[in-house]
Prior knowledge:
The protein is mainly alpha-helical. The protein is built from twelve helices and two strands, in the order ααααααααββαααα. The chain has helices spanning 3-36, 40-48, 52-70, 72-80, 86-103, 106-119, 124-152, 165-192, 208-232, 239-256, 264-277, 279-314, and strands at residues 195-198, 201-204. It has a two-stranded antiparallel ribbon. α3 (52-70) crosses α5. It is globular, with a radius of gyration of 21 Å. It starts with a helix and ends with a helix. 34% of the residues are buried.
Amino acid sequence: MTExxxxxxxxxxxLRRALTWLFFGAVATFIVLRLGAxxxxxxxxSLRAYDAATLAGAAGLTLTGHAAAACYDLLARHYVGHTLxxxxxxxxxxxxxxxxxxxxxxxxxxxxxxxLYARHALRGGDIARxxxxxxxxxxxxxxxLTGAMLVLAPPQLPPPxxxxxxxxxxxxxxxxxxxxxxxxxxxxxPRRGWRLRVRGVELPVPTLxxxxxxxxxxxxxxxxIVLTMLxxxxxxxxxxxxxxxxxxxxxxxxxxxxxxxxxxxxGTVLLLLGDELGDARVLAAVLAFRAxxxxxxxxxxxxxxxxxxxxARRRG
Length: 316
C-alpha cells in the first residue's frame, strides 16, 4: 500500500478527531465560563437549606438505584453459570458500579470487576462475559427511557441538536426499534443457538426472560438517578424536563470520558436549567446530588473493597 493511499484514508479520521475535540473544547469553555459566573455564596445558602428529611429521601432513592444496578451481575451469574455466592457477587457489582460512577467505566466497571472476580478464581472469559452483559444491561434501559421520552414528550434540546420535533420523535422511534430488535433477538436466538461476538468475546444470546429483567433493572437504576436529582431540585421542575436534561448530560459525559463527569454534569445541567430556575439553586441541587448519589456510595464501596481484599489475603 502506497504512502499516498494511507494518507488518503487517514486524513478524514484526523479531521473528525480534530472537529470532535474542537466541539468538546467549546462545550468545556462554555461550562467553565458559566461556572465562573455563579454566585457561590448563594450556592452555599441553597445547600444549607436542605433539611434532614429531604436528604434522607434522596438517600433512600439512591439506595434503590444502586441496589438495582448491583443486581446486574446477579443476572450475569445465572448467564455465565459461575458458583460465586450471590451476596459476594452483589457486593462486587456494587463496588464496581460506585467506582465506575466516580472514576470512569474503564477503571470502575472494568478494572475493579477484573480484580475482584480474578481474586475469586473466575476465568478471564467468564469475567469478560459478565462485563459485556453488565454494559448491555445498563445502556438498554437508558435507550428505552430515552426513546420513550423523545417519542411521547419530545423536549426542546439546545441549538447543537440539529433535529426539530419531528426529527426528535424519529430518533426516539429508532431507539425504541433498537430495543424491540434486541427483544426479538432474545426471543428467537436461544432456540436457534445464535451467539454474539463483542470485541472478541463470544456470548450466547440471552433469553427473552433475561432481557426483560435487564430492562427492568436498568430502567429502575436510571429512574432513580433522575428521581434523586428531581427530589433535590426546585419543585417547579417537571420529571419530563429533567429526564431530557439527564439524557443530554449523560451523552456529553459519555463522549468526554471525564472521570465521574466532574464539572461536565454540573456545567451541562446549569447550562440547560440555570436560566429557567436560577444558577445557584440548580448548582446547589446538582452538588447535593453528587454528594448523595456519587460520593456516599463511593465511600461505602471503598470500605467494601478493602474488606474483600483483606478477606482474599486471609484465604491466601
